[in-house]
Amino acid sequence: MKKYLLILSIAVLFTACTSEKKVEEKKESIKSVFAVNVKEKNQNQNRVFNALASSNHQTKLSFKVQGNINYFRYQMGDEVQKGKLVAKLDSKPYELKVSQANYALSEARAAAQNSKSTYERTKKLYVNQNASVSDIDNARASYNASSAKVQNIKKELEYARLQLSYTKLYAPMNGYISGKYVQENENVNVGTPIVLLSDKLVDEVKVQVPESYINKLKEKDAVKVVFASLDKNRTFSANISEVSKFASSNSKTYEVTVKLKNSSKLIKSGMSADVYFKDINTSSNNSFIVPSNSVLNDNSGYFVYVLKKDSNKYLVKRKAVEVGELNNDGYEITKGLDKKDLVLKAGMSEVYEGMKVEISNEKDLGN
Predict the structure, then answer these.
(1) Which residue among 58, 99, 179, 351 is least enclosed by CB atoms within 10 Å?
(2) From CA 364, how far away is CA 99, in angstroms rounded?
(3) Given this structure, which CATH class describes domain 28-43+285-365?
(4) pTM (two decimals)
(5) What is the distance between the alpha carbons of residues 325 and 220, in angstroms, rounded to a whole number?
């Protein structure tokens, strides 16, 4: 009797386990998931880099002589007309040099005139045999030396006057003050930058591009430049005018100069802009984009779960893939997917190879 009860209990337990397993399988077979269609990579995708506006012509003005600035009234943003006085040094030291050179020239001319008269008298005496050859040679030498001294002092005077003229700094072109480096009453040395003078019309932007992208760009490529600081994020058509061949000293980026086709007076030097470069896809044409969370990896490499139609349900299949760049839309898949594939979007940890599922958003997929 006990043996019979034991067999009966085992049978009941086995039946219960089998029922539970069938219920579990049934629950698993109808699990709902979300999927997404793979998206072909846009061949005309844009790359955006931040840039700064700059004038086509910019000049740092500096003095050619040293001294103390006693006139400098311009401020940042002030307009300057060509030929207008920008700054002036204290000219008294250089006026003194001109005065000293003038005095020295007067003395030299008097000495030269005196030596000339002596030479002329000596020549007459020599003709009348009242002066020796040595006398006339000495008179000639004295006259030549005094004449040479006059020419030398003339050059010194010319140089002193030139230095005096250098105490005034004039604008070489129409523009505006886009940089101011010193203040009035400061002492400056030769070549010390005083101001940065820029064109009134700013028609260039300069952008730093990483080394991974620089070789995709070339001169005359069309780009788009957007100034967020202007009304309605004004957009300008432009072309690349110059691509630097040397990286910056503190980062592995290269400067690219972009020329605006039609600029605006509203654009100021130093304004921030976004430059949209067209991305050149160097991968194969069978390149797709999938959500970043759809891509998994293990010891075997990167993979995704795709869903294959099976009657009125879908089977979960694992597919090995090769991954490219990560962007705002997700991962680029360069190999392993087909454009008709449905990729599991979420819940990858709750599925397994061969599992039957339903797609909750099937209507949204157009399948």
Answers:
(1) 99
(2) 93
(3) mainly beta
(4) 0.52
(5) 27
Burial grade of 14 (CB within 10 A; 0-12, 13-18, 19 or more): exposed
Q: Give the residue-averaged pLDDT of 230-248.
A: 89
- Please give the structure tokens belonging to residue 212: 């991974």
pLDDT tens, 154-202? 999 999 999 999 999 999 998 889 889 999 999 999 999 999 998 878 8
What residue ranges do the domains of the chain occupy? 28-43+285-365, 46-89+173-280, 92-165
Mean pLDDT of 316-332: 85
- 267-281: per-residue pLDDT in tens? 887 889 999 987 654
DSSP 3-45: HHHHHHHHHHHHHHHHHHHHHHHHHHHTEEE-EEE-EEPPTT-
CA–CA dist 163, 96 (Å, integer): 11
Which class is domain 46-89+173-280? mainly beta
In order, the DSSP letters of 222-283 are EEEEEETTSTT-EEEEEEEEEEEEEE-SSSSEEEEEEEESS--TT--TT-EEEEEEEP---S
**How confident is the model over 27-73, as pLDDT tens digits?**
444 788 888 888 887 655 567 889 999 877 889 999 999 999 999 98
Q: Are the CB atoms for 306 and 319 separated by under 8 Å?
A: yes
Provide the CATH topology of domain 92-165.
Answer: Helix Hairpins (1.10.287)
Helix axes 133-165, 92-127, angle to 10 degrees: 160
Q: Judge whether 97 and 163 are in contact, CB under 8 Å.
A: yes
- DSSP state, residue 143: H
